[in-house]
Design brief:
This protein is of the alpha+beta class and 155 residues long. It is built from 4 helices and 6 strands. A 6-stranded antiparallel sheet has the order 1-2-4-5-6-3. The longest helix is centred in the middle third of the chain and has 17 residues.
Length: 155
């Protein structure tokens, strides 16, 4: 990416070997390698699908943030496995320009914003092997919602 924004680092994610194939404003395409993420029957471990869906969903939101003012957090995630994957798996997700403008307006107005991402994941043959459903929250570093609202109301 061209700008010098800090990247969020998560050592657990780094250990998966996940690769960023393409990232730009509002778009993320990532690859989770089968190795070292194969389970005991040499197919993709479910946890690797979860990490891939989370990262692909969060990337487009992070791409629009002024990280000195805002940060992302995952509120909820679910992964539906459709088929076993015996190869690397790719995922991509994008936000429309309209969605990004709405998120930024909410952040400025109330210090929080959120979006739901549906993240299809495909194996090396292009077969849909899993779908992630991720709720991403974008919050101001000054956001006080955690102390003035219950977790359910913060949505």
């Amino acid at each position: 990416m061209a700008d010098a924004k800090p990247q969020y680092r998560v050592p657990f994610v780094e250990r998966t070997g996940m690769q960023r194939l393409e990232e730009r404003r509002g778009y993320s395409r990532l690859l989770m390698p089968l190795e070292p993420n194969a389970n005991h029957v040499q197919v993709m471990y479910l946890g690797a699908f979860t990490v891939l869906a989370e990262a692909a969903a969060a990337g487009p939101g992070i791409s629009i943030l002024d990280t000195a003012k805002y940060f992302p957090i995952i509120k909820d995630i679910a992964v539906d496995c459709h088929r076993m994957a015996a190869s690397d798996v790719a995922a991509e997700f994008s936000l429309s320009e309209e969605a990004m403008e709405s998120l930024l307006a909410d952040l400025e107005r109330k210090g929080s914003a959120g979006y739901a991402a549906e993240v299809p994941m495909h194996d090396a043959d292009g077969t849909l092997v899993a779908t992630g459903r991720v709720t991403v929250k974008l919050l101001s570093h000054d956001w006080q919602g955690a102390t003035s609202q219950t977790a359910g109301e913060a949505a």
